[in-house]
Specification:
It is built from 1 helix and 6 strands. With 104 residues, it is mostly beta strands. Strands 1-2-3-6-5-4 form a 6-stranded antiparallel beta barrel.
Length: 104
């Protein structure tokens, strides 16, 4: 993986749920790490490319290997990318390809 391609600073966030005084669940996100990645928006034809890429996927993010789960999310500035799928390239723990959906 060429370091020059990893030009987008991304913040990995973990979700936590707490309860208020009335028992309602409150969702909050906490920053875990800032990493560098390559963010690529997908064209309409790529998004509809069979089962390999889900229809709701809007971005492909490439990162160096790190601890990441589908319950986490990525932030690119003020933009939020919900993780759909994580692929460990060649199962070598060197690179992750993360399929994401941008949410409002």
């Amino acid at each position: 993986m060429r370091a020059g391609l990893l030009r987008h600073p991304l913040t990995i966030q973990n979700r936590s749920v707490t309860r208020d005084d009335t028992g309602q669940e409150l969702e909050s996100w906490s920053d875990v790490a800032t990493v560098w990645g390559r963010v690529e928006p997908l064209s309409g034809s790529e998004r509809k490319h069979g089962a390999a890429i889900e229809a709701e996927t809007t971005h492909r993010v490439t990162l160096r290997y790190t601890t990441l789960s589908a319950a986490d999310r990525l932030k690119l500035g003020e933009r939020v990318l919900q993780i759909i799928n994580i692929l460990n390239t060649d199962e070598r723990n060197i690179e992750l390809v993360v399929m994401c959906k941008e949410v409002a």
